[in-house]
Amino acid sequence: MLNSIIQKTLFLIIFLTFLSCLTDVTDDMKVKKFNAKSIETLTKDLDLTLFSSIEHTSKIPIIAWMGVPQNHTNIVRFQEMKDAGITISMSNYTNSDSLQKALDIAYQLNLKVMIRCPELYNNTEKTVLRFKDHPANGGYFLLDEPITSEFPKLKELLQKIEAIDSTHFCYINLFPNVAMPELYSPIDYRNYVALFLNKIPVKILSFDHYPIVNGFIRVNWYQNLEIIQSEADKAGIHFWAFALTTAHDYYPIPDLAQLRLQVYSNLAYGAKGIQYFTYWTPTSNRWDFHKGPIDVDGSKTIVYDYLQQMNNEIQNYSLIFLTSKTIKVSHFGEIPLETKELTSLPYFVKSIKIKGGNALLSEMKNEMNYFFMIQNTNLNKEIGIDIQTDLQTKIVLKNGYIIPANLIKEEFKLTPGDMVIFMR
Prior knowledge:
alpha/beta; TIM Barrel; 2 domains; 8-stranded parallel barrel; 6-stranded antiparallel sheet; 12 helices; 20 strands; about 30% helix; globular
């Protein structure tokens, strides 16, 4: 009996010691400000020319839903969209000639335009033959948020298109898991996604979920990402995810923190394309759309600047996000629905202490390196990070430069939505 008590006591001591190395939370989880400095501040005096940087060999696809409208199709507006960091524009063209004009302008700027016009559906063969070799062809838009009864017709249309053009992808965007269940009834959401992938051989899985409502993060957003990542992996394809850039009803005007929260979480789960709803503010009888990056009258808003900064940031990391596979995502603090709690660390991380709030931790690998991303998943609170790594570990800064991690010798802070990437 005594030996049993001793063994249990020793186990408890070892376990508690492990936890103390892994995480540490301040008593006040409502702390909003830290005395700790940001990594940008801690590295501002470094001569970065002494260090190497990430190569920019390819770009993350960045899609503008409701890009430049048909009646504003000109090179100035397309250049403005390119300057915001958009790579693919998706607008609804009333005829194929209007689409042709947009494609020709986009080609001059090395942009893509998604093929979306009535002729794609009522004269499919002729339309695909017309645009399949256009260098600005950004894929074929088939449908947004289909119900299960529409799957057979979508499969037929996809196969008809791909029989003529197998080079470009066909785009279909799925409901989020917060949609009314009757929209994908009689099956649950995971089976809705699985059935879609089983019935329709898409090359890219897309879904929309706007997680920030009335100042809160929806409890089932990360659950949605877990499902999409899992089903895309099973199908052997990549997925694209959304961030909201146009306010309406209970969806707020986004700031940089909200964009970072959405975009970096999507990328942490393995998204290979980022979509924004919307670029140009639409008009609607149903929704109170306002303050998109480009307003209804064509003027820029503050969200345009946030969008531009967000896209510049992620393109500096494009090589990491495009070539890596996400092998593990865990959460710290309040654990979102159907996600995994942080219980272990990468082999090159000796210890980590997270103070003040929630965090997402993503482990990614490509053929050359192992990456460890830590993100602040709070809307309004800073968090403190105290991390100890081995001597070979590096930090990839937002400007793409790679510095030794041991140059950061103190606790640093992450502002809401922001993240840091360690590389080994």
